[in-house]
């Protein structure tokens, strides 16, 4: 049976409050410290670090709220956050909201009640309720993946990434282009990335671009692509994510067509599998690991009251695969 602080105090012949003071780094004489340490070693006592931390001014717990755990991008960011926090002796508490906004709000409140030192919110959109909740809780919150004027943020350079993709597709001679995007409630991917693509194409004189909305999952992207190709005959399809591109590729294959012979295809994300499939996907890879490391360092600085840059922007790499044909 696990020992309690009361048991340790009794075995060491000291008050329970003295053991608690010892565990929290308080003022205890060297003789008493030696007694308590001896009992802890003999009983293999492991203090409940979470309960213990609730009494301390600093808990060394950082909450991370993520929209999903099965996304390549999100999981890469999460692993980098956790690794960097571990190096700095912090513990990560990760909550997945399955892309439900109400769960994000609920998680912000719950984490604040658990006295975490700070929260990293990886968000697909910031609503008025987010504003109200973040302002109401009394702990630092860092927003990742969305730009919000009122809060500290780390974002991908979605507009410039989109612009680069639009320019590239134009240089490959494509004029009949479809863009498969996502809902505009996601400002970063749904609005800025799309606008970058459209502006990049417009600079080359291509303004007649058909845009459609897909969900983030492969199955829905496949269905949307099928409907698009029933009424349109583009030479190129630019997708808001690699997953959407995989869905489009699935439909193209089912229709007995080929990439890039019949349709050129590109995405965003730079997933590892994009380099394994045939043809390899032309895509843009964001610096996800760098984003995670920077998020961990930034939230620690915020919890320590240091001034941090209001907006930090992560870069990207353009990866030219085999999925776009020059015409």
Protein architecture, described:
The chain is α/β, with parallel strands linked by helices. It folds into three domains: 43 residues, Orthogonal Bundle (434 Repressor (Amino-terminal Domain)); 123 residues, Response regulator (Rossmann fold); 130 residues, Response regulator (Rossmann fold), CATH 3.40.50.2300. It has twelve helices and twelve strands. Helix 5 crosses helix 12, helix 8 packs parallel to helix 9 and helix 10 packs across helix 11.
Core attributes:
4-stranded parallel beta sheet; Rossmann fold; elongated; transcription regulation; alpha/beta; Peripla_BP_I; 327 residues
Alpha-beta content class: alpha/beta
Number of helices: 12
Give the spatial strand order of the biggest sheet.
2-1-3-4-5-11
The overall number of domains is 3
Q: H/E element string?
A: HHHHEHEHEHEEHEHEHEHEEHEE
What is the assembly state of the chains in this entry?
single chain
CATH superfamily of the largest domain: Response regulator
What gross morphology would you assign? elongated
**Strand portion, in percent?**
15-25%
Tell me the Rg in angstroms: 25 Å
On the 0-100 scale, what is the average pLDDT?
93
């Amino acid at each position: 049976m696990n020992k309690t602080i009361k048991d340790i105090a009794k075995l060491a012949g000291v008050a329970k409050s003295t053991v608690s003071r010892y565990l929290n780094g308080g003022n205890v004489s060297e003789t008493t410290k030696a007694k308590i340490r001896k009992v802890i070693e003999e009983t293999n006592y492991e203090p409940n670090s979470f309960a213990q931390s609730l009494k301390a001014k600093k808990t060394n717990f950082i909450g991370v709220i993520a929209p999903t755990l099965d996304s390549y991008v999100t999981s890469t960011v999460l692993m980098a956050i956790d690794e960097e926090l571990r190096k700095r002796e912090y513990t990560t508490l990760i909550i997945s909201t399955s892309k439900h906004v109400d769960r994000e709000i609920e998680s912000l409140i719950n984490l604040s009640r658990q006295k975490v030192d700070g929260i990293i919110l990886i968000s697909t959109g910031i609503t008025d309720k987010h504003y109200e909740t973040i302002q109401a809780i009394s702990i630092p919150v860092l927003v990742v993946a969305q730009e919000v004027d009122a809060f500290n943020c780390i974002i991908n350079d979605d507009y410039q990434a989109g612009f680069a993709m639009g320019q590239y597709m134009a240089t490959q001679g494509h004029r009949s282009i479809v863009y498969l995007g996502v809902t505009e409630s996601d400002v970063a991917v749904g609005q800025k990335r799309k606008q970058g693509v459209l502006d990049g194409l417009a600079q080359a004189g291509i303004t007649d671009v058909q845009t459609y909305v897909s969900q983030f999952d492969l199955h829905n992207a496949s269905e949307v692509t099928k409907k698009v190709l029933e009424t349109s005959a583009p030479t190129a399809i630019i997708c808001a994510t690699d997953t959407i591109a995989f869905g489009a590729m699935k439909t193209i294959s089912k229709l007995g067509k080929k990439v890039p012979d019949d349709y050129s295809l590109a995405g965003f994300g730079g997933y590892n599998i994009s380099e394994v499939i045939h043809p390899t996907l032309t895509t843009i890879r964001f610096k996800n690991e760098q984003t995670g490391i920077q998020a961990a360092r930034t939230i620690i600085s915020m919890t320590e009251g240091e001034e941090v840059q209001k907006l930090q922007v992560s870069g990207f790499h353009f990866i030219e695969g085999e999925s776009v044909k020059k015409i």
